[in-house]
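This entry is set out below.
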Amino acid sequence: NNSTNASAGSRVNSLRVGTALGGFVIDGTEGSGTLVASGSKSLTIGSGSAPAGGSSTGDLLIGESAYAGTVTWGSTGTLKIEGRLRVGNGGVGAFNQDAGVVDAGNVAGQLKYLGIGDGSGGDGTYNLNNGRLLPGGGISGVELRQLRVGSSGAEGVLNVGDGVGSAGTARLESRDDLFVGYEGGSGTLVIKADGAIQLQTSD
């Protein structure tokens, strides 16, 4: 098994967890993988500018090509994903957010919707147990990024809150659309007492 140890404020070009493809891969290629972040670390995925067409720069893909991937973000820092965030992208993916901020798709470019369960054979789960999930940078962001739970033949589950924390300590904030079941997919949304969703018009 391979591992990585990054200091606070690190940046990588792209990240795949559980995949058959090359790139920055946790626990090797052609296999399942796990990434755990704790403490106060922050991580930026991307180069800071819009990627060229077809580029994977800025992408975080969890569970691809029939493999399984799990990310647990327990850091009080920020995970900034400048490209695509896909959880269960043709494989089985899980994202457990226990703290901090996850900011997804906040740099210009196409197809940067946040997908939980995306593509045929995909099975994705996002557990927003604590912290803030901000598609496109959230309410104050400049990019419009849809959140699709169960898309294009996949199954997806979004859990907002775990029933343990105080009211509103697990928050989804977005200026764009939230779809639960999209284009032939099957989606489930569960909101518990400590969970909150704020959707604000982009007009």
